[in-house]
Amino acid sequence: MIRVENLHKHFGGFRACDGASIEIAQGSITGLIGPNGAGKTTLFNVIAGVLPPTDGKVFMGDEDITGLPPHELFHKGLLRTFQIAHEFSSMTVRENLMMVPGGQSGETLWNTWFHRARIAQEETALMKKADEVLEFLTIDHLADEKAGNLSGGQKKLLELGRTMMVDAKIVFLDEVGAGVNRTLLRTIGDAIIRLNKERGYTFCVIEHDMDFIARLCDPVVCMAEGKVLAVGGAKEVMQNDLVIEAYLGTGLKNKVKQEATQV
Question: pLDDT digits over 104-142, tens only?
């Protein structure tokens, strides 16, 4: 579904992405791991049109989408969430969801004057869909709560709900577990699995919680210093010497190996 070929993104002399190539298969939940500064979020930002690449190509299916802006990619069904949730804090949870679909009749002054019935019909349909999404995510009891009052994990669920309001084809999730307690993280994981299996969503997930990655993701891609180090199943990648060294450094890697042989 998504193919990234020899992607480079440089900031002056710093190579945040340095020839990274990955493939995200349709219907998969692909994990993207790596130490801080590996280039994971930069890769996300280039794919999602937030940043232009220095070099390289991004394809969605057979279509070259390199450098397309986020709003165009949004209409193609490519969405991303951020490590820090971006909610409309003074609006309710339900209203946050209803804001997502574009091209609503109420967005034009003409329609607010002369097509109020059409606007009312659209709002009723959007409210129904928003309530269905909230029920799916098991946060329907928060429908009328101000979004700014939600916990970190609840805000991550709300961001996931936004993708459901437009029936996204592929969603890039940036550290969904950051600042989230274990119970809510399991709820988020359950929702991702259900969206994948029941609705055919494709996901790519950046996450440092390896238990979360192992539970959800196949394949797993590990990056370090802007390059792809390893690709495979979660257990295979996590046991890869290059991956262990990238996370722990050579000294700690050898120490871990010595301790393992002594057990």
Answer: 555 555 456 555 777 677 788 889 999 999 999 999 999
Q: Give me the DSSP letters along 41-95.
A: HHHHHHHTTSS--SEEEEEETTEE-TT--HHHHHHTTEEE--SS----TTSBHHH
Backbone dihedral region of 49: left (phi > 0), alpha (psi from -120 to 50 degrees) or beta? left
Q: Are strands 78-80 and 170-174 parallel, antiparallel or unpaired?
A: parallel
pLDDT exceeds 70 at position 174: yes
Amino acid at 101: P
Instruction: State both tokens at 231.
Output: 């690709």
Its domain, for residue 25, covers 2-87+166-261
Overall domain count for the chain = 2
Query: Which pTM does this prediction carry?
Result: 0.84
Q: Contact 58/37 with Cβ under 8 angstroms?
A: no
**Residues 184 and 252 both lie in one domain:** yes
Residues 139 and 40 in one domain: no
- Is there a contact between 6 and 57 (Cβ–Cβ < 8 Å)? yes
- The verdict on 80 and 170 lying in the same domain is yes
- Does residue 131 lie within any of the structural domains? yes
Q: Is the pLDDT of residue 251 over 50?
A: no
Same domain, yes or no: 176 and 255:
yes
Is pLDDT of 57 > 90?
A: yes
48-51 CB contacts, 8 Å cutoff, 24+ apart:
48/73, 48/78, 48/79, 48/80, 48/172, 49/73, 50/80, 51/9
